[in-house]
Design a protein that fits this description.
Mean pLDDT of chain A: 90
Number of helices of chain B: 16
CATH architecture of chain A: 3-Layer(aba) Sandwich
Mean pLDDT of chain B: 90
Helix content of chain A: 25-40%
Distance between the termini of chain B: 30 Å
Number of domains of chain A: 1
Low-confidence stretches of chain B: none
Oligomer: heterodimer
Shape of chain A: globular
Strand order of the largest sheet of chain B: 2-3-8-5-7-6
Number of helices of chain A: 7
CATH superfamily of chain A: P-loop containing nucleotide triphosphate hydrolases
Order of helices and strands of chain B: HHEHHEEHHEEHEEHEHEHEHHHHEEHH
Strand content of chain A: 25-35%
Strand order of the largest sheet of chain A: 6-7-8-3-9-10
Order of helices and strands of chain A: EEEHEEHEHHHEHEHEE
Radius of gyration of chain A: 17 Å
Number of strands of chain A: 10
Shape of chain B: elongated
Distance between the termini of chain A: 28 Å
CATH class of chain A: Alpha Beta
């Protein structure tokens, strides 16, 4: 079963009298364990589409199915629950809480579920180990490098064992070497844990790392290509 | 939400230490102001209450029921017979400290060419001496030497008007309850300074026996003033005295000190009104200061709030997070405020600052701020409520942010 299925998703923004289509008539699905990229230049609709897929925004038209269930119009509380329990987010900049340590930032995703403190610490520690940050758990974001902060953000997305992780330009603020290492991490996690990754990028080098490539232009999905299994990551 | 959310709220407050310190200072100063004012008021009420009870001669006053509702002049005609018999009955109650006979009269005090209107009280010198209040007011001369002497004591204002001093002889003239004119010559044994100027300007004391002779009212009193050991027993004792007198076939009217203390009630009302008004102004200032701080905090943390919403924190949790910050500020500010308040109180009380006389008063007093625990409890509750109100709108605003817009906030 598909984790996400978009059917004719459309999101219109109103700027005064003008109506601008952020995304128009997008239809595709993301299967469990898939590794997909939304590629396209700035303004092509990548962030809008990720916001819709992540239940942060509501479509003006079309339907979004999450694990087979229509979630296009579910109430706020239920959208929060789904984001909390089934979806992980990684943003362009790390978006960590500056007053919390790396471990606490990761644990935050469990705190909001009401998970007991001891278990939060243990699982946050495991998630930090999984993203290659052992020994840095008690550091605050300002004592970490850009790449390390982004790994903490990945650990935060991962710790709740989501069905899908959505990442909006996760490498945009990183140098190319760090960006590629982060992509390696995504790939490893998706293969080892079976979690689906959908991330956006306008960088051809990054885009080339994904098997599934949805290219967007002017709010429309221009192409949807998938490389055969085993023939992608260089 | 558990302890970890309180911890997070605490750390959030420490992000901008200077801002939190300044806002917290407003809470501390507000707390000190409220508790100091309340402590000063409590001390003032206490002193005024004591002065009122002392001035009336006791907590409960018994008088002829026919005098109830009459003017002072009309009430002159109604006296209680055999006061000593009634006093014996009252003294059987273990709550009673002493029973003072009081005769009230008015007329003219004459010295040489000068005559000045007075308000006179006939009282028992020995019992007054035991009570201690009147002797403490003597500023010149001495208190009555005995209950039998033809001596008079004057308020300082009346003495000034008459040009009398201790040792002078004056004539006290009045009209008896029967309407006859009578007079007595008496030596001024002492001058008193009564705390209320209007009374001080007319005050005249005679020993009970001299006053009874003057009024031709031997064995009678206008009022029996009953002093109790405990202020809190006033109402219960008053009811009991009415029952005792009725059972003895001596029906009396009974009034507590509070029922006759119009000045005390007015001052209390005035102080409370001023306190509430200044408290309200203070609360508004605190609400504005804290709301401003919290609004800035929400604005600065908009992207972070967007992230929290994106990872699944629900809106109630976001709102509570900011309310916790407000509550922590209230609790921290109130605790520091309580400590500062105790310190300021100790310093003020140690300084012995002399306060000017109150309106209508003749004597100032040393500033004393009383420790009034209820003021601390109420201030704590008020600070908490005030900061919750101040945090409510910023917290609500934070919880209602659109996550997409919040994440795009620069």
């Amino acid at each position: 079963m598909a984790i996400l299925e978009a059917r004719g998703l459309t999101r219109i923004y109103r700027l005064g009298e003008e109506r601008i289509a952020g995304i128009r008539d997008a239809s595709f699905s993301v299967a469990g364990g898939e590794f997909a990229v939304l590629a396209g230049p700035s303004g092509s609709g990548k962030t809008t589409l990720l916001n819709l897929l992540g239940l942060l925004d509501r479509p003006d038209e079309g339907t979004l199915l999450f694990e087979g269930r229509d979630v296009s119009d579910v109430p706020d509380r239920e959208r929060s629950r789904l984001r909390r329990e089934r979806i992980g987010f990684v943003f362009q900049t790390h978006q960590l809480v500056p007053v919390l340590t790396a471990r606490e930032n990761v644990a935050l995703a469990l705190w909001i579920r009401g998970v007991a403190e001891g278990e939060c610490r243990r699982r946050a520690g495991e998630a930090l180990d999984a993203v290659g940050l052992p020994g840095l758990a008690e550091r605050r974001p300002d004592a970490l490098s850009g790449g390390q902060r982004q790994r903490v953000a990945v650990a935060r997305a991962l710790v709740g064992q989501p069905a899908v992780i959505l990442a909006d330009e996760p490498t945009a603020s990183l140098d190319s070497e760090t960006a590629l290492r982060l992509l390696d991490l995504f790939d490893t996690l998706h293969r080892e844990r079976g979690v689906a990754f959908v991330f956006s990028s306008h960088d051809p080098q990054i885009v080339s790392r994904a098997r599934r490539r949805l290219r967007l232009r002017d709010g429309r999905i221009e192409s949807d290509d998938e490389l055969p299994a085993g023939g992608a990551i260089a | 939400m558990s302890l970890r959310w309180w911890r997070l709220a605490g750390r959030n407050l420490l992000r901008h230490r200077r801002r939190t310190f300044l806002t917290g200072s407003i809470v501390v100063v507000g707390f000190v102001a409220v508790t100091m004012t309340a402590g000063f008021m409590a001390q003032t009420f206490n002193a005024l209450r004591k002065a009122t009870i002392d001035g009336l001669g006791g907590h409960v006053r018994l008088f002829d029921p026919r005098a109830e509702g009459k003017t002072d002049e009309e009430a002159q005609a109604f006296l209680l017979d055999d006061w000593e018999g009634l006093a014996r009955l009252i003294r059987e109650d273990r709550r009673v400290v002493r029973v003072l006979p009081k005769l009230s009269f008015f007329g003219l005090a004459v010295k040489g060419e000068k005559s000045v209107a007075y308000l006179g009280t006939g009282t028992d010198p020995e019992l007054e001496r035991a009570a201690g209040y009147a002797p403490e007011m003597v500023v010149d001369g001495a208190f009555f030497s005995s209950g039998d002497a033809d001596e008079v004591m004057l308020g300082a204002g009346l003495a000034r008007s008459l040009g009398a001093k201790a040792g002078d002889l004056i004539t006290v003239m009045t009209t008896t309850p029967d309407g006859a004119l009578n007079a007595v010559d008496a030596a001024v044994t002492g001058i008193l300074q009564y705390p209320i100027k209007e009374i001080d300007d007319r005050l005249l004391f005679l020993p009970y026996r001299a006053a009874a002779r003057l009024l031709k009212a031997e064995g009678k009193v206008h009022v029996l003033a009953i002093r109790l050991a405990d202020d809190d027993q006033t109402d219960a004792a008053a009811r009991r005295f009415a029952e005792v007198a009725r059972a003895a076939g001596r029906p009396v009217a009974v009034k507590t000190w509070l029922e006759t203390a119009a000045f005390y009630k007015q001052v209390r009302l005035l102080y409370i009104a001023i306190f509430l008004f200044t408290g309200l102004v203070l609360a508004v200032v605190i609400v504005l200061a804290v709301a401003n701080t919290m609004t800035m905090s929400v604005f600065e943390r908009t992207r972070e709030i967007g992230t929290l919403l994106a990872i699944g924190m629900d809106r109630g949790q976001v709102k509570r997070l900011f309310l916790y910050e407000g509550l922590l500020l209230a609790v921290g500010g109130a605790l520091l405020g309580a400590a500062a308040s105790l310190l300021v109180r100790a310093i003020l009380n140690a300084m012995g600052l002399q306060m000017p006389p109150p309106p209508g008063g003749t004597r100032g007093a040393v500033l004393i701020v009383r420790f009034f625990p209820m003021a601390y409890v109420v201030s704590f509750a008020l600070m908490t409520a005030t900061l919750l109100v101040a945090s409510w709108w910023p917290a609500r605003r934070a919880s209602r942010l659109n996550p997409v817009e919040a994440l795009a906030h620069v």
